[in-house]
Amino acid sequence: MKDLFGTAILDYQTNNSPEDIITETTISEADAMEVSYLFRSYQEMPKLEQKALQLAKGKILDVGCGAGSHSLYLQEKGLEVTSIDISENAIKACVLRGVKNAQVQNVLDLDLLQKDKFYTILLLMNGTGIFGTLDQTSKYLQKLKSLLAPNGQILVDSSDIIYMFDEDEDGSKWVSADGYYGELTFTISYKSQTEEAFPWLYLDYNTLQNAAHANGLECELILEGEHFDYLARLY
């Protein structure tokens, strides 16, 4: 991986002529995202993210922390946060921003003693994306469950992207019969370079709830957003 997403974050943090990140998926055309969006303050965050941060308590794990905006807010509230991301450059930017415990780490490789487990695990900005495919979801949920302290919680947001598919005259959707419709392939481009395409998963709430139950977790709908997105609590 070229770590273009992380490079954009680090460029912004170090004023190294940052440019827009260009994202494209199997069902959507190229779209530009300003890197500054990843550095937003609590006041600038969507309601779903604000709600998740309000509910976060105890010892916290921020999975896929990106530029560290969620971690910084919680840290400033006096909470103990461990921030992880697979992007080395993103973690460098987090450290420069003042995130106290930022680590280059894949959540699947995290191994903890009982006393080190987390009360709150955050997966925000379409947190189900890292699962990649529906088939991989159980593996991730089992891992996340193993990292939870007694009575702990996983706060995750995602979207039901069925709205992006064309509709037939009878109201049914044109969805491929191959696999789950929320399984996309993402491509990121930055400064004339393109990252190798990778799988990314959007889960509708019912599918997340079924997956949670299949893995011994309860699932509660906390809040619905304005555009088919939602925040859920798993415990």
Q: State the low-pLDDT regions, or none.
A: none
Instruction: Specify the helix fraction band.
Output: 10-25%
N- and C-termini, Cα separation: 33 Å
Radius of gyration: 18 Å
Total number of strands: 12
The average pLDDT value, as a whole number, equals: 94
Secondary-structure element pattern, one letter each: HEEHEHEHEEHEEEEHEE
Which word captures the global form?
globular
Report on the structure:
The strands form two sheets. A seven-stranded mixed β-sheet has the order 5-4-3-6-7-12-11. Strands 1, 2, 8, 9 and 10 form a five-stranded antiparallel β-sheet that branches. The model has no long low-confidence stretch (mean pLDDT 94). Strand 8 and strand 9 (193-194) form a beta hairpin. Helix 1 packs parallel to helix 4. With 235 residues, it is of the alpha/beta class. The chain has six helices and twelve strands. The chain has helices at 4-13, 47-55, 69-76, 88-97, 137-146, 205-214; strands at residues 21-25, 28-33, 60-63, 81-85, 102-104, 118-123, 148-159, 183-190, 193-194, 198-201, 219-224, 229-234. The protein is 24% helix and 29% strand.
